[in-house]
Design a protein that fits this description.
Blueprint lengths: L24 E9 L8 E10 L4 E8 L9 H4 L3 H4 L5 H12 L3 E4 L2 H14 L8 E4 H8 L8 H8 L9 H22 L5 E3 L50 E5 L6 H10 L3 E3 L8 E4 L7 H9 L3 E2 L1 H8 L11
Parallel strand pairs: 1-4, 4-5, 7-8, 7-9, 9-10
Antiparallel strand pairs: 1-2, 2-3, 5-6
Helix pairs in contact: 5-7, 6-7
Length: 328
């Protein structure tokens, strides 16, 4: 029988208090990568399968040959020699899918882990069997945990979880599983609505020419091109809870699950103005990491520009209000 490292975790909600709306299972995931860009690759992956109340059912770990320079070896410790004999992502995709299927993906900064997985699956012309994700950073904020910051090691210290090998996918996933269970039970005790987000899989992918350093392979959707000017006037800022209106200026910051070019294409097709920077005229900023200190998020806060995440933006794109007629 597999030992449950979270068995002694405090703050466990009694069975009678468990919300019926909570998911039936979770896949706690951590991936180590060659970098942070959209063309970077996974070099190792780990999954802890948890039941509906956060008890460990199984765990799994694999190295992955990225077919390129392994990137920041000083962080993840995986050299090109160590990865040379590892399976490539297409060879582990089926087994990984079995670990993820019918579960909510849980990760620390889940937008990043999900985006890396989505791209790897897209390269295989497939899709991850994941429909929702839960970020433990967002959950910690919802719970109001007294943390000085939202690093994994800080969350681990809060719950008394010992971190043995930081930036090793299996140990990071273990630490996350051990900290997620008490957080999940705290949420259940108060009837908190879990901060679940929809996972938008990539459904299109094409190989681009190899560029950059030796043995580096870059994937892209299509050659970049100049977009036509938006034909509608800017109606002003997006009102949270309302609808997008044609002509609104939308800016993007950080990583996205849907490839950035495709996301921008959808915005343009809906009649929105895609802006490359944030100004006082920006209607809304789309980012999956609103706490990141990027220039765009910093400017958005200073201007009072509304900020929404990618999943909310994708929902809003389905029903954009037509621009009001102009008086001639």
């Amino acid at each position: 029988m597999l030992e449950d490292p979270t068995a002694a975790a405090p703050h466990l909600a009694p069975p009678s208090a468990w919300p019926a709306s909570y998911p039936q299972g979770y896949a706690v995931v951590d991936v180590e990568t060659t970098g942070l860009a959209r063309d970077d690759r996974i070099v190792s992956a780990a999954v802890y399968q948890l039941d509906a109340r956060g008890a460990v059912q199984d765990h799994w770990y694999t190295l992955v040959n990225p077919q390129r320079d392994p990137g920041p070896v000083w962080i993840h410790g995986l050299t090109e020699k160590m990865l040379a004999g590892a399976p490539r992502f297409p060879e582990i995709a089926a087994e990984l899918s079995e670990r993820l299927a019918d579960r909510v993906l849980v990760a620390h900064n889940a937008a990043f882990d999900w985006s890396m997985l989505a791209r790897e699956y897209a390269r295989t012309r497939g899709a991850a069997p994941v429909r929702q994700r839960l970020c433990t950073i967002a959950l910690s904020k919802e719970l109001g945990l007294p943390l000085p910051n939202h690093k994994l090691e800080t969350l681990a210290a809060h719950y008394g979880v010992v971190q043995r090998r930081a930036h090793h996918a299996l140990d990071d996933a273990r630490v996350l599983a051990e900290t997620f269970r008490p957080s999940l039970h705290r949420a259940a005790e108060t009837g908190l609505r879990l901060p679940l987000l929809a996972c938008q899989p990539l459904t299109e992918w094409s190989e681009g020419p190899a560029i950059g350093r030796q043995r580096s392979y870059r994937q892209t959707w299509r050659p970049s091109r100049k977009r036509p000017a938006c034909p509608y006037p800017n109606p002003g800022r997006y009102e949270p809870g309302g609808q997008l209106v044609q002509g609104m200026r939308v800016a993007f910051s950080g990583d996205t699950s849907v490839d950035r070019e495709l996301l921008e294409d959808r915005a343009v097709e809906a009649g929105l103005h895609v802006a490359t920077s944030v100004s006082r005229l920006t209607s809304v900023l789309v980012t999956n990491d609103p706490e990141s200190p990027t220039s765009k998020t910093t400017k958005a806060r200073s201007f009072g520009t509304p900020v929404i995440d990618e999943a909310a933006f994708m929902q809003l794109l389905q029903d954009v209000t037509p621009a009001p007629p102009t008086n001639r």
